[in-house]
Amino acid sequence: xxxxxxxxxxxxxxxxxxxxxxxxxxxxxxxxxxxxxxxxxxxxxxxxxxxxxxxxxxxxxxxxxxxxxxxxxxxxxxxxxxxxxxxxxxxxxxxxxxxxxxxxxxxxxxxxxxxxxxxxxxxxxxxxxxxxxxxxxxxxxxxxxxxxxxxxxxxxxxxxxxxxxxxxxxxxxxxxxxxxxxxxxxxxxxxxxxxxxxxxxxxxxxxxxxxxxxxxxxxxxxxxxxxxxxxxxxxxxxxxx
Length: 241
Description:
The protein is mostly helical. The protein contains 9 helices and no strands. Helix 1 runs parallel beside helix 9. The longest helix is centred in the middle third of the chain and has 32 residues, at about 80-110. The mean pLDDT is about 85.
């Protein structure tokens, strides 16, 4: 079971992510959208959306630093393990709480505003459930690890090393087998979320409007001051009899 979870499942998740993204890009290009519901309600959206997106941006950045940068690199620049964890916990907690509050507002909006609820897709329920689970488990892992409830487990010597081994196609799944349960669940929810990206509204984060930078300008004609926006009557030879 450990081999399947930590040696096979990550690659299956990546295959689903890549294959689904390629399929949607070829056969459902115009379906890649956020399915925006701003017309139905904007007050809660203006609060929850920035909190969630900016919070998640820093959360993802923290995961990239924590998983991809080896401990030997931070030791080489003189950053102690205590200082690293203090910085990671302080910034990660702020970003995590902001993202959690933001997604809480968005979920409340989707459930309580009738028009937004009617515009929701079936995939939204699955996506929100997995996303909330991953975020809650991440915050719980941070709290438990900071309070010593995980017996001093250092994820930089376990989860991070295992994650980097995935890129060499020789995953050291035994490192994840010894990780605390909350870290295992957080990783499982994370890879499940990766696999769901092409099949939910999350796919919009992979579609950058690059062509907008090179499209021709839209030309607007200026309305003359004090003039009613009506067409001038046609002259005699322009009229159709």
